[in-house]
Amino acid sequence: MSTHDAVQMSLKSCLRLARTSFEHEKSISWFPGHMMAGLREMGDQMRTVDLVVETRDARIPLSSINRQFEQVIGSKRRLVVYNKADLAPVAIQEVVRQEMAKRNQQVLFTNTNINKSVNKILDVAKAIALSDAVKYPQLVVMVVGMPNVGKSSLINALRRTGINKGKAANTGAKPGVTRALSGRIRVLEAPAVYLVDTPGVMIPHIPDPIAAIKDNIADEAVLADYLLFRLNRFEGVDYCSALGIDGPTDDIGEFLQKLGKKIGALRQGGELDVDKATQYFLRAFRAGRFGQLCLDDLDADSVEAYFQRSTELPLSKHQKAKARREAQRQRALVRAQSRNLV
Ligand SMILES: Nc1nc2c(ncn2[C@@H]2O[C@H](COP(=O)(O)OP(=O)(O)OP(=O)(O)O)[C@@H](O)[C@H]2O)c(=O)[nH]1
Ligand SMILES: [Mg+2]
CP-type G domain: which residues (predicted)? Predict the structure, then answer.
């Protein structure tokens, strides 16, 4: 190894350790009206639901849990689906499966691009429907989860494999695409299985941004900074080569400058377009260009600590009233829109 390479390597390891914690000024509060309304509406419709598919993100097995769903789901039968499994290391699956089994949660891992993978959900739904044809003349499955975990993509995939029909739910790379509950979307003829899509619901106040800034928040600048911080701490992740830039850095400003130059993200007049570079970086991560990563610590103590900590704060009276009004408005809207999907 040349002296130059040795210096580069040692610089690289110093830089990787430059930040040992992630600082963020304030707690994050991103809980738009449609989420409140959606949560309320889910509760209202729950008595007509036979199975809840609680969708989470395999790259953040803990941080994609929203414990507000506990109140809504209650004792209803639940299947936990860790989606985007193609973007997470395969080795985490068994760990997560065991940790969730300790908490009585049945878990599946899915990738919405693979039919065989999503069919596992249909198998569970089918088994329930066939177990009591009188009780379940049609099985209604509600898909819930945090924003952007892939709920709508799952529904489309199930419709594709179940009845060979096209997209029924809108999907998108950014969180917050689905704004209201859908009508019942048919995904299987015999036994009859229907799915209900729901808007992603965020935790109303996140007291600990380190624990919660993962792939679901709206503030892209913070998310990009957090991502850089985490990527620097992963051994063996070479985001520089993946992006075609030289040398790692722990400074998000410097990093975005480099990336912006590389991809030609320029505003009129030649000034660097930081937002464009930020979005490019996040898209690359979401597309799995830095390899299969898991951003949560999954040793037994961390998992236990997660479940001990309550991140859930009750909604204020004002928020509840607002949610009620919004739910009424959206119910009328969705009823009108969804008739032709069943
Ligand atoms: N790699 C990968 N990407 C996925 C998978 N499932 C969904 N996606 C992508 O994730 C993004 C979000 O998908 P959506 O289905 O819109 O997510 P959602 O949970 O409905 O989001 P909201 O409606 O905003 O709550 C889209 O860009 C999808 O293409 C998956 O299994 N693997
Ligand atoms: Mg959606």
Answer: 39-204
Q: Distance between CA atoms of 302 and 22, rounded to whole angstroms?
A: 17
Both 193 and 284 in a single domain? Answer: no
Q: How far is CA 5 from CA 11, 236, 258, in A?
A: 10, 17, 21
| Amino acid found at 54 | E
Total of domains in the chain: 2
> What is the Å distance from ligand 1's center to 227 Cα?
19
Of 148, 156, 167, 174, the residue with max ligand 1 atoms within 8 A of its CB, to mutate for a pocket test, comes to 148
Query: Pick from 58, 198, 190, 57: which is nearest to 125 by CA?
Result: 190
Q: Do residue 187 and residue 251 come from a single domain? A: no
- At 128-151, the pLDDT tens digits run 999 999 999 999 999 999 988 999
250 within 8 A of 18, measured Cβ to Cβ: yes
Range of the domain at 55: 33-204+312-341
pLDDT beyond 80 at 50: yes
pLDDT by residue (tens digit) across 6-37?
Answer: 545 544 555 555 677 776 654 455 566 788 88
How far is the centre of ligand 1, averaged over its atoms, from the C-alpha of 244 (Å)?
A: 26
Centre of ligand 1 to C-alpha 20, Å, is: 31
> CATH number, domain at 49?
3.40.50.300
Residues 60 and 75 in one domain: yes
Instruction: Assess whether 200 and 146 both reside in one domain.
Output: yes
